[in-house]
Amino acid sequence: MQKISELTPAERDDYVCRQSIAVLRACGYDMPEEMALDYLLDSDSVPGYRFDVLDCVFNCIAFVLQHRRDDTEAKEAMENMLQEVGAENINQLTDHLFRIAEAAARDELEQLVG
Question: pTM of the full predicted structure?
Answer without folding.
Answer: 0.91
